[in-house]
Structure formats: C-alpha cells, structure tokens
C-alpha cells in the first residue's frame, strides 16, 4: 500500500442530476441512455418523492435495468442517475451507483465519475472514526466523507465545500442531499460536466449531447471547483479554491466522449477532424484510400482525407451489438471479440494501399487483429495512423488504463510497435499536433497517460509542477521524418 492507500480501479462513468417541476425518472433514464457510451457495466437512478429517496440500480445496459414499472416507482421531481464502467474485478452490483446513505441530515445519493487518488487513506481515516464500509468503491468513501462532514457542520454547503477540499483526484459528482440535487466538478475540471435547461427544469450532465437530444438549452460547463445546487427555475453556484489552470483529460476528446458533445468549448467531432488533418500533415504516405476503424476513427479519417485528398472508404463494418472488446478480461476473448465486431468489405480494400486510422493504441491487441483482417481481405499495404501519441503510463484519474506493462508502446520504439501490429508504416500524432487539435493551452490539459506527469500528486509519479510539457515530444521536422517505415510482412 502506498502513502495514499491502494490505487483503485477507475470509475469511468456518466452522470446526470436534475431538478424539475415535473417527475424526472424518465428524463434521467433517457439521459443515461444517451450517456451509455460512458459506461456499460451498471446503471442506477435515485429520485426524491417528497418524503424519501427511492432508488434502483442494476447490472448491464440502462434499457435492460429499468422497466416501465421501475420508472413509475421512481417518483419525484428531483433525482440523479449514473452509468458505470470500471475494470472487471470490481464489476459487481455493490459497486453500482448511485450509492444511497441515510444520515441524520436526510438521505445522501451520489454518482461519481472520476478517480480519487487518496481514497485508501480517507477510507482508513474514516474507518478509524467508526464509519463502516459496505463496498470497495471510492464513491462510498466520498459519501461517508460527506456524511462525516455533515455530522460536524450540520450545514450542507459548508459540508460540500469542506469534504471536497479533502479529495485528491478527478471527480465530477451528481449528489442529492435530502432531495436537493447538486453537481460538483473538481478544481482541475478533469472530467466533463455541464448544465442545461428547459422550461421548468435544470439539469447537469456529463456531456452536452444529453441536452441536444432531450430538448434542453446548453447553459455552460461547470467551472473548475464549482458546486451547483439545481432548482427547477435556476441554479445557485458556489466555488472551491482552484488553481489558475485546469487539467481536462485529453482522452475525452481523443476517444471517450461522443463526437457530438461539446466539452469545455470544444466540439469533440471538430477536435477529431483536426487530429486527422494533423496526422495527414505529419505522416503523409502514397496510398489509395483512408479506412477508419469504426466508430472511433471516423472523424479522424475525414480530417486525414481533407488534407491528403485520399477518399474515405468504409472498408470495415462494425456489428453494433457486440460490446466493447477492450473490457473483456481475457486476451483470447478480446481477440475473438474483434473478429465478431469487425468485418471487411473485401471489394473495397482488395489490392488497395490503405491508410488505417484509429484513435489510440493501448495494448495493441485490437489494431493487430484489424491489420490482419485487412491483409486477409487483400489490402496491398496497411499504413497505420493513430490519433494520439503513444500511451505509456497509467491513468489514475478516471480512465481504465492501469498498469504500465499492458501498454504496447511502453519500452518499445515506434518501429517495434509497427512490427508487432504488422503495419507497413506507423505514425502516432505528435504532442504538439494533439494540443493544436484540442484548441486549449497545453497547461490546461492532462496528458498523464502520455507523459507520466500528472496534474495531482500521485505517489511514485511525477507531479506536473516539476517538468515542462515541451519536453515530451514535438512533431516530426520534415513531413516524413517521423514516419517509421517497416517492411510489410506476410499476414
Ligand atoms: P487495445 O490497443 O487492443 O488495448 O485497444 C485500444 C482501443 O480500445 C482504442 O483504439 C480505443 O478505441 C479503445 N480504448 C482505448 N482505451 C479504452 C478504455 N479505457 N476503455 C475502453 N476502450 C478503450
């Protein structure tokens, strides 16, 4: 155990909180379905019926968890919801959210997106004070900490401010205390969270796409360290002390968020198109077609095509009913999963020199299989272009990438990775290219998984204050100098 306690699996999740002058269960249900890409393991809703908190949680997809009678039971005009995606070890109903706890100050319901780095320490401290823990989840630590603070201060606002001061890490929270919904964003604004409104309702949600779909007007993103109390006719905001910069997670734009969401002023789709354009500038190649890895490489492929003039061809078709292979526990399952998920259009790729575009490489399992599929379908060459720099370090702040040895790029050159995945050439987007595409100053982004330098203190890791980001890679000087060519090998 480290100084900060054991590092826990992440909670890569989606949240909503709403206050309305009408029943909210259905609105939350639809909000969660729209955020389903942020978590497919479990989901839950808690509402306040005027007297007590009602809740239901379950494993699986949102539409599998809630039937019409469940939503009818979840009465009330305020509520919160959560979808969860964590590492498989903690995939149990006990860790599903919202967590609901009864206190002398009313029920607390909580949904968390992020990762608390000092959760282990806080858990020990609270256990010593006599608080009992029912689950292994960081989120329960947050609830108990809040309950503890409430029992001292007796004042909800002070308790919210005080308890967030103790948390180190990434947290976007949907909280309901005695029927009042709150939205909280950590002082570095690492995970997204925004507010929208329609007649008689205010809602906070992880991504703006929820508002588009449910007919809400986007109001704004929560500010770093902001705590917002939602009412049907408005919201009240109070803020925590916060640094002058943010640390938005770059991976939200690169892969995780939906392309039709606007995160902190930057449309995800636009960022991805720009990433593709940058890739084409950094790594041009003589080829015939650009093929995206669906879904996540689509927008990047558009960008690559715009700059290179090569046509985008849907050379790979996705079975949309197969779950994300990334989360399968066994390597062998993941490999079969890729085959179940993707099938090539042989006539589209046969004898073609293909530029294959994907958002990122983590273990390399997926892309290796995809290169093989394309070669077996007759592609003459496969040039791989990846929409973010090599992922080499764990994420402690809410993305499920935990151990260094899982990363194919760790201790391998670009050449070696290209050989491993059997690509004719491989180009990873440069750090500078990524920063340009995100249109945020680099000081305001977290690149921890690329640089091993983190915006919060993580035991055993470098803290951002100590090193300049410039140190971690610049784009190739000449157009092709960064491209690592390897000889094609038989598939
Ligand atoms: P692999 O290199 O086989 O581990 O898979 C990488 C691919 O999985 C990426 O191209 C993404 O599309 C997707 N991916 C990356 N990180 C995650 C994550 N934390 N959770 C789910 N999918 C991910």
Ligand set? adenosine monophosphate
- Please bin the fraction of helical residues: 25-40%
User: Main β-sheet: number of strands, strand sense, barrel status?
Assistant: 7 strands, antiparallel
The residue-averaged pLDDT reads 90
* Amino-to-carboxy terminus distance: 44 Å
Q: Tell me, what's the shape?
A: globular
Tell me the CATH architecture of the largest domain: 4-Layer Sandwich
Query: How do the strands line up in the largest sheet?
Result: 3-2-4-1-10-9-11
The percent range for strand residues is 25-35%
Number of domains: 2
The unreliable regions are 1-10, 474-491
Computed Rg: 23 Å
Strand runs, count: 26
Which class best fits the helix and strand makeup?
alpha+beta
CATH level 1 class label of the largest domain: Alpha Beta
The total of helices stands at 16
The name CATH uses for the topology of the largest domain is: Glutamine Phosphoribosylpyrophosphate, subunit 1, domain 1
What is the CATH superfamily label of the largest domain?
A: Aminohydrolase, N-terminal nucleophile (Ntn) domain
Task: Explain what the structure shows.
This protein is α+β, with helices and mostly antiparallel strands and 491 residues long. It folds into two domains: 13-243 and 474-487, Aminohydrolase, N-terminal nucleophile (Ntn) domain (Glutamine Phosphoribosylpyrophosphate, subunit 1, domain 1, 4-Layer Sandwich); 266-439, Rossmann fold, CATH 3.40.50. 29% of the residues lie in helices and 26% in strands. The protein contains 16 helices and 26 strands. The strands form seven sheets. Strands 3-2-4-1-10-9-11 form a seven-stranded antiparallel sheet. A six-stranded antiparallel sheet has the order 5-6-7-8-12-13, covered by helices on one side. A hairpin with a 2-residue loop joins strand 7 (169-177) and strand 8 (180-185). Helix 9 crosses helix 10, helix 9 (268-282) packs antiparallel against helix 15 and helix 11 (331-341) packs across helix 13 (365-376). The longest helix has 16 residues, at 138-153. Mean pLDDT is 90; it is low at 1-10 and 474-491. The structure holds adenosine monophosphate. Adenosine monophosphate is lined by residues 255, 296, 324, 326, 358-367, 399-401.
